[in-house]
Amino acid sequence: MKVIVPVKRVIDYNVKARIKKDQSGIDLSNVKMSMNPFCEIAVEEAVRLKESGIASEVLVVSIGDKSCQEQIRTALALGADRGIQIETDNDLDSLQIAKILKVIVDEEKPKLVILGKQAIDSDNNQTGQMLGALTKMPQGTFASNVDANENQVLVTREIDGGLQTVSLTLPAIITTDLRLNEPRYAKLPDIMKAKRKPITVRNAEELGIDLSSKVKTILVEEPPTREGGVKVEDIEMLIQKLREEAKVI
Question: Which CDD domains match (predicted)?
């Protein structure tokens, strides 16, 4: 069984994002970048499937400029076998990314595609579902547990009402939630081995996909500063504040 794991390069979750002076986007200069945390969970799940003998190969795909090879190498150090970089300088939206991934899926013919449910920079939570629609593959989103064999996979999903388990016939798509697993740390010998694993670089424009974005960023600004709370002496004053300031009564 071949497993494809798309990964995304994002600002490290420990870094406070800075907005550009012209408010056109996020300032990425001299900022620590890392693999999207949900993508790390997806890589970990794919590697565990390989270690259990269910998966035979783990292929990592990343879309962006040459810098995203750093995240591909990280995934290779964690146990993936090879990587593909789709090179582009364009700021792509979810649908374009899904279309690019569909081309890779059609070529590689994996039994499983495991993605993070969302990226922490855009928080769109769209790519996995769009890829499912484009490929017509069954999907199990927000996975908190995965039990796979050669023909099907049971996915336990986190939903508002609790947990839901769905059975998917392979090939299928899974998007990972936080509680699926705890990603491992790459060991130094594995980091050294990852340098010898192959990464194929392909130009996004050669895939025959319209890369012009349909989404336009008008303005990026910080959320309003939250005002401090007010202490009240009794219930009557609380009701008065709710009536006069919050206007909820």
Answer: ETF_beta
